[in-house]
Structure formats: structure tokens, C-alpha cells
Amino acid sequence: MKTIVRILLMLLVSSSLFGQNIKFTLYNMANTPAFTTNSFRQVAVGKDSTIWVGTAGSGLYRFDGTSWAKAPVLLTHSMRTIMRAPDSSIVIGQSGYNAVQATNGGVDRFTTTAFTNTHYGMGNGLPSRYVNGLCISNNGTIWAGNGQDLTGSTTDEGGVAYMPAGASSFTKITAGLPASDIRIMAIGCSNTEVWAGIDRACPPGGCISPGILIYSMQGNFIGKIDTTNSPSLLQLPILL
Q1: Which residues fall within 8 angstroms of residue 35, CB to CB, at 6 or more apart?
Q2: HSE of 69, CA atoms in CB hemisphere, 13 A
Q3: What's the confidence (pLDDT) of residue 207?
Q4: Distance (Å, rounded) from C-alpha 131 to C-alpha 185?
Q5: Could you read off the pLDDT of 170-200 as tens digits, one per residue?
Q6: Can you give the pTM of this predicted structure?
Q7: Largest pairwise CA distance in the chain
Q8: Are 103 and 128 in contact (CB under 8 A)?
Q9: Which of 11, 71, 169, 211 could form a disulfide with 226 if both were Cys (CB 3.0 to 4.6 A apart)?
Q10: pLDDT tens-digit readout, 32-76
Q11: Domains detected in the chain
């Protein structure tokens, strides 16, 4: 079930949050000509306090403090995560939503406010074109958690991949993953480790329980947390 989030851009009028009135401005299609939808799913604050918001198939938007603008790219993509990198670039994990653009899912980096983006897809090392989540380490390494995608009769397996700062492609990780039926649901970075939530997988030979995969910042597999070693975990897909 899709969750519809309406953007409430809160403008604080005092440096103190306590004992003060908080005012906000609601932006929607009725008062914002750039919007083609009132349904937003991701928000990030960029350089100079610009605000970036993504939709589920209705485009990417940026607010510069005065007005909203719609990006001329990623017009029908589903924005699954938006993050600000240490170099102040905006990094988006998305999946193609429909038609031709469905094959152009992946990671996009915007380094300026001019909507100029660099796209990274399967040809740049990503496991699939279905990016479920991103995290960015303090040194600027981008980690992607991917689900499966289907193009015609071909299934692209999901997985985990990372791209160090300054690199031009991702490196896929195979350690810790099942042979097939791979779906990474979410991913998160700490200062020393990367945790990836993996869904239940049923490769040939039997099914494997969902859990949390742990990797070092160098991409080495550390271990897995699941119901076999942590019984308190529920048998559900892991959504970090």
C-alpha cells in the first residue's frame, strides 16, 4: 500500500522551539503552479537550504526559498530516497516508473541547482535498476541497496553495491547474499559499518530467512542477524 505524504514546509520564526508559535506554509497544486501532484514521498535539504522533494512518478522538485521548480529529468520515476552527500551534492535512489524510462532506474547525483545530473545504472555496476535505499558514509562513499527488477522475461537480481567518493562506477558485493531471489529492502550506514535489510529469499535448494546483513566500510561481509541468532526478530521483511 502506498503512503501518500503531503509536504508541509515549516518555516521557524524563532530560534527557540519552546514557548513560541510555529508557523508553516502549505504548498500544493492549488498555490504552486510547478506542482503536478500533491503526493510526495521523499524530502532532503540541500546546499544553501534548498529543499528537494521527490514523487512516485510525477517528477522531482526543488525549492530555493522563494519558488518551486520542476526538474526536466526523472519525469516519471519513483523517487525512493533523496540524500545530501558530504560534498553537498544531492543523491537520489530511484526506479523507473513506466514505459521507456522504466529501464533508466538507478542512482542520480545533482551537483548544482541547475538540475544537471549524473546517472548511474546497471552499466555502472548497480545490481539492478530498482534502488530501494541509499546511505552515504562520512567519507562520501555511496551505498545502494537494490531490489529485483523484471525486464521482459529477464530478472535482474537485487543486491548491495558501493561507490567511493571520486569513483565513476559502483562495485557489487556478493558475499553474504543468496545465489538468487535477492531483494535488499533498506540500507543504512554508521561510522564503521553498513547494515542492509534483506527480504526472505528462495533460491534453488531451499528458502533463507530475512535478516540484516552487516558489512565493513571496505565492503567485507561481517555477518547476518536473523531469527537463528536473534529470536526476538520477527519473520518479516527488514525495513530499516
Answers
A1: 27, 28, 29, 61, 68, 70
A2: 11
A3: 84
A4: 9
A5: 999 999 999 899 999 999 999 899 999 999 8
A6: 0.84
A7: 62
A8: no
A9: 211
A10: 999 999 999 999 999 888 999 999 889 999 999 999 999 999 988
A11: 1-11+39-120 (2.40.10.500), 128-240 (no CATH)
